Amino acid sequence: MAGDGFEAKDIFNQMTGYTYNDIILMPRYLDFSADEVDLKTKLTRNITLNLPFVSSPMDTVTEDNMAIHMALLGGIGILHYNNTIEEQVEMVRKVKRYENGFINDPVVLSPEDTIESIYKIKTTLGFSGIPVTEDGTLNTKVIGIVTNRDIDFEKDTSKKLKDVMTTNLVTAQEGITLSEANSILRKTKVGKLPIIDNQGRLKSLLSRTDLKKNRDFPLSTKDANKQLRVGAAISTHEKDKDRLAELHNAKVDVIVIDSSQGYTRWQIEMIKFIKKTYPEIDVIGGNVVTSEQAEALLKAGADALRIGMGPGSICTTQETMATGRSQATAVYHTANTARKYGVPIIADGGISQIGHIMKALSFGGAAVMMGGLLAGTHESPGEFFYKDGIRLKKYRGMASLEAQKSGGDKRYFADNSKIKVAQGVVGAVVDRGSIDNFIPYLSQGLKHAFQDTGFRNIKELHDGLVTGSLKMQIRSQSSIIEGGVHDLQAVEKNPI
Questions:
Q1: Active-site pick, 229, 243, 411, 432
Q2: Looking only at Cα atoms, what is the longest distance across the chain?
Q3: Rg (CA), the chain
Q4: Which positions ≥6 away from 355 have C-beta within 8 Å?
Q5: Which CATH superfamily is domain 103-213 in?
Q6: Which residues, in sequence order, are bridge partners of residue 346?
Q7: Annotated catalytic residue: which of 315, 325, 396, 432?
Q8: Could you tell me which residues are beta bridge partners of residue 172?
Q9: Do residues 462 and 364 lie in contact, with contact meaning Cβ atoms separated by under 8 Å?
Q10: Among the residues of 41-114, which ranges form H helices?
Q11: How far is CA 492 from the centre of its chain?
Q12: Same topology for domains 8-99+221-482 and 103-213, yes or no?
């Protein structure tokens, strides 16, 4: 017992379960800058990340675009499985094929589309400069491109693109290197460079803006072949062994067995099957919240564990099923168990701010899995819409009735049930911009949090957790209020 804070074991070995907000970390002496903090961590036994960020396998969070950008920025994305095997495999291939700077799945329009279509794309996706093909698909020849300068002074938004598009195109042939394409952009001074095949069909697109913005990704998560890493979710169902085989053929890096309750015969059997049949693929087991659950999956061969049962912002499992555990307590106890096996854990759910990420790592997590925090970004699936003047994007729990109809019920052992019971809701989250800006923001904030607690990296933080040099304290409800914004008539707060 100490006057200035307590060791984690003194707090978490009690009858009460604690959430992230219930605990505050004690500051320590510091003699280093925030930029000296290294956030490198282990995702699994064999895969290292430069940032401890993982996007959740939810159908409103992670598809190929999110996975590409998460890997470029130093984390990793886990592709959801509310889709066909072919669709999920194609997403894996898009990530693995991705070359920095090339847009491999460009948006195209037809000459019969109107200027209004350009403005809609700019509003929903945040970019303009759209190639025009003969029929508005990638199956026919590129015949033009529409950029801002083509439509800036056009007042009639019903005018067809064939009347305003630029037809004198600068193109490059499929197979060109990024360096060669960049050279063409410099010489011609065009904003977009269509990459075409022998039939003149669009294969990819190079953007001057993207090249300037994404010139370098020193933290990117890549495999031995210098391809971006990506994960994919599967269920414990026997038929998902076919999905697994195709994902393996597509060179997926890690498999997440996506289950709300991971301590089951079916998951243990699936982990053993994967490790025996595809030993080169790492397996993340879960979700679990107790030491007993964790140990069972670790003994089966899991290379990492996913921790959390009901803490997510759109999850209602704890109130509907009366089962689960407070997330901070769950992370601490499962991390203690996993440490004996040399296996990292991923704190999944309950992350809505930088402080929650810091606490998840402080209680033993090696990385955090984020859903709602990333759902409102430009890279997440879906389209933006406006409500009460606020730009929003749909975010739904995989156990919501809506998601269950698309296949989310596999995660909750409910796909054969005639009566569906919701363990999640459908909601909306505010526009957070692009994760190209958002992830660096989270990263820098996290570095400052490490600096305040006096630890230079995640290993030092975990060592402090074990030795007791990391001190913390339980917060009263009044303390939680005092620690936030209060007693102001009006406030402007930067959203994250």
A1: 411
A2: 77
A3: 24
A4: 20, 449
A5: CBS-domain (3.10.580.10)
A6: 306, 367
A7: 315
A8: 195
A9: yes
A10: 64-73, 85-97
A11: 28
A12: no
CATH topology of domain 8-99+221-482: TIM Barrel (3.20.20)
Between the CA atoms of 244, 247, 251 and 256, what dihedral angle is there, to the nearest 10 degrees?
-60
At residue 288, the 3 state secondary structure works out as strand
Which residue ranges make up each domain of the chain? 8-99+221-482, 103-213
Q: Cα separation of 468 and 223, whole Å?
A: 36
The reply to whether 411 belongs to the active site is yes
315 belongs to the catalytic site: yes
pLDDT by residue for the chain (496 residues), tens digit each? Answer: 457 899 999 999 999 999 999 999 999 999 999 999 999 999 999 999 999 999 999 989 999 999 999 999 999 999 999 999 999 999 999 998 886 667 777 889 999 999 898 888 877 666 668 899 999 888 899 999 998 888 888 888 899 999 989 999 899 998 888 778 888 888 888 888 899 999 999 988 887 766 655 556 889 999 988 889 999 999 999 999 999 999 999 999 999 999 988 999 999 999 999 999 999 999 999 899 999 999 999 999 999 999 998 776 666 666 677 787 999 999 999 999 999 999 999 999 889 899 999 999 999 999 999 998 999 899 988 877 778 787 777 776 655 555 555 555 555 454 555 655 555 567 777 778 899 999 999 999 999 999 999 999 999 999 999 999 999 999 988 888 887 776 676 666 555 5
Q: Which residues have C-beta within 8 Å of that of residue 35, sequence separation ≥ 6?
A: 447
pTM of the complete model beyond 0.90: no
Tell me the residue type at 357: I
